[in-house]
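During the second year of the project, the team shifted from modelling isolated chains to modelling whole assemblies. The rationale, set out in the original proposal, was that interfaces cannot be judged from single-chain predictions alone. As a representative example for this report, we include one of the complexes processed in the last quarter. Its constituent sequences, exactly as entered into the pipeline, are reproduced here:
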Amino acid sequence: MSAPARTRSRTPAAAGRPANEVVLDVRDLTVEYIGPDGAVAACKDVTLSLRRGEILGIAGESGSGKSTLITALTRLQRPPATTTSGSITFHPADGRPGTDLVGLSARELRRMRWSTMSIVLQSAMDALNPVMRLGDQFVDVLRTHYPDLGRNGARDRTTELLAMVGISADRARSFPHEMSGGMRQRATIALALACEPELVVMDEPTTAVDVVMQRQILAQVLRLRREPGFAVIMVTHDLSLLLEAADRIAIMYAGRIVEVGTAAALYRDPAHPYTRGLRDSFPPLHAPLRTLQGIPGSPPDLRRLPSGCPFHPRCPVRVEACVSTTPALVPLPEQEAACLLLTPEESR
Amino acid sequence: MKTTFLSHPKVRFGLVVVGFFVGLAVFGPWLTGTVLGIDPRANDISAIAAPPSSEHWLGTTQFGQDVLAQLIAGARGSMFVGVLAALIGTVLAIVFGVTAGFFGGRTDHILNFVTNLFMVMPVLPLIFIVSGYLQGTGLWMIAIIIGVFGWAGGARTLRAQTLSVRNRDFVLAMRMLGESNPRLIGAEVLPHLGGWIASMFLSAMIGAILAEAGLAFLGISDSGAISWGSMIQAAQSQSAVLRGLWWWFVPPGLCIALIGTAAAMLNFGVDELSNPKLRSATRRVVRRTRRVERAVAADARTA
Amino acid sequence: MTLAPQLTEVAAPTTRLRVPSRWAFLTRRLGFYLTAAWAAITLNFLLPRLMPGDPSIAIVDQLQRVSGRQLPPETLVSIQTLFGDPDANLGEQYLAYLGQLARFDLGTSISRFPTPVADLVAAGLPWTLMLVGTTTVLAFVIGTGLGVLTGWKAGGRFDAIVTPASTFISSVPYFWVALIALWVFAFELRWLPSSGGYDPDLEGPAFWLSALRYGILPAATIVFSAFGGWLLGMRNMTVTTVREDYVLLAQAKGLAPSRVVLRYAARNAMLPSFTGFALALGGVIGGALLTEIVFSYPGIGYLLYDSLTKRDYPVMQGVFLLIALTVLVANLIADSVYVFVDPRVREQG
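Output from the structure prediction step:
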């Protein structure tokens, strides 16, 4: 798999910041589904980097490769998915050299899990073991990573963690089905913080709960990431949510990142026509309502990607070259975007 | 969809084997009589309890009967009971399961209760007893008894599936349009249960073949008919085991096991095709993925 | 900390109230099994009366032939109560029948006249209970264990060999496996006794040891034939469960693989085995009865065979009633275990 080097020099990590400013450095990550008729790339040459304490949002429609990216980042993928190229380098806070997660053995990975990177899944109902008491699901991970903690120590820590998200200690005795949806979701967030990770990956953390609970959970995440301190990768189809919560946002389309930049830049001045379409199809939470416009058409079938720019069949501003040329990410003042229209204007 | 169904190795194996035995049941007499020139009931006095030879490919019984000819004749008996009993059982399962699931409420309550009763009844002993009272009845009666008592498991599955189909948009929409219930069931619900009904039919057929073999083994099936079970029973009663006449009792058991395996494979394959979670765990998918992983790792080493 | 607890705790108590307790579930199941027991008894009452011919007359004739004299009036009444009285109406017969059952009177055996059926059944039942009980538990443990292994490593080499093999084994008739086992281990290799359940010449501990030795082949046959069904069910459930989010999360937590497999995947994948227990048990019972016959094992399966071939209707009926009631008890036990392994007790009974 030869990845073109076009995007390499532009990642923030390489732009001269000290190594431990960056917690996760993803380069040219390609994930493929191996089918009977060959491989289908669900993530193609994804390059991302995440600074300490930052919230990076990844947005896209379903089928854009978001979920594939999550299982690849957390090294949880199963056949037929496999990482065919690229690296995922994790830099510990204490300045030790970074580790490429892609090359690690199962045992080495297991030791790093949860204390470096944890995950919050979309549906808390499905993410908690239905036949285990909530507290036990905290205790087992605590005792795995802190063998010296002891049973009582682990219980005390559980109480502390639950209190952080406003759940009373006696709830540790409850089974997941005895709790409300919002409480379960907050519990999984507390669970994700159990081993003080430097990075939490969140997969649609608020889609399974109602709007009021959504706000509450979001507020909690924003507060907690400063207090214990951790970086967040938040994956969602809800761009408006990211515009509020994230520091930076990456937009995915057909397995590629088509635009990445600060939330403010993407909100004010989206460079890619797809980003513009996404922004205009969601009602903003706080701003006055504007006319909503959807994106015509539907996400492409990854097995039969359109030639050239994969977005061209749905693009309102396509030109002839879009059919034949795949655009690379182009550096702009406040963001990067992959669109042929941008190249001539901005690189002057 | 059709091509993926037929290209699935388990499905293909199942279809070939089941098809083979169905063919054997249909064309058996012609095959033994005209092609091979052997008679399942003829006694060859020159070869009593003879091991397999060029003359009798699978040997002969204590009575000098050709085991191969009996095996082919037995296919007809066993398959007849299997298919008829499965037909009856499937119809009953549809009547109880689909009706309960579709109408819900009181009807569901009563039908589901009856289904549950039949689920906890020891069906095989019950079949033994009833056949015991009707000793020596024909294969028809045996098949009916097996079918009448062995439908509960299927009914439970169909009820659950009907419940899920019933609440889908298209059925609700048709209901709003005032479509009559029988038409709704026939035109909208049953087609969606086709896969489940087919798989139920297969399991019921295997269950019936096994049950008939058990009855024949007890000596309360049709004493005149040849089935795989009656072959094993005859072997057992003539102390074939004690005397090591394995060619007599091994082949009919193998046939039962083979057709059972084929049906299970078919159901397994259908499960895998309809459940993506199972499909992604097949040997083919895992091997393919591992191969790519190894290639990537090798590339990384040389690079 | 900053969140108001009253806001977040509102929803929970109401959901908790909706969930029925274990005991409510078990009481409901007990009610169902009592009804099922009543249905089994009623079926047992109706069967001989629905059959063509008149079993009761046939029995009386046969008994008179066997005993060589006129039957005492109380035996006659007992038979008519159990198998049909042409002079009494069905309601009266039914009440009398229930009364007689309440005194554990199942009639008199024809082939072993004048032994009461209840005695014959009581003599055979412990053997069958031991045999079927142990083998069911063993087959469940082996099948479920292997099912977890194959399901966890689905698509691997172990799975590729064990799963098709189990598919084949689970399709083999029990009595055929019994015949092969008999042929190989009892007659060819002469390792184990070929028939019976114990050595009648022994007493005390030696007797029990002999019972163990005689039980090996029948038990091995049943375990061999029965474990495949559990394995296949458990394998597919494990494959499905392993792809659930909570197992994914358990892996993400970096827990030891054994813990992920046992506490997260297998623990959940096992639950349908309990609800499907009734159906599976039915198959095992039928197979075990036939296995007993091959080995002439002194249980109620062999008794049933004996009564079927000798047209000993009273014994036949008695055996069926006992099997039916035993299966109900076994199901109640399975339900009780289920209640303790699944905190979300099922809504429907």
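Chain C touches chain A at residues 1-5, 8-12, 15-16, 19, 155, 243-246, 248-256, 259, 263-264, 267-268, 271, 341-344 (CB under 8 Å). Residues 196 and 297 of chain C are 5 Å apart (CA to CA).
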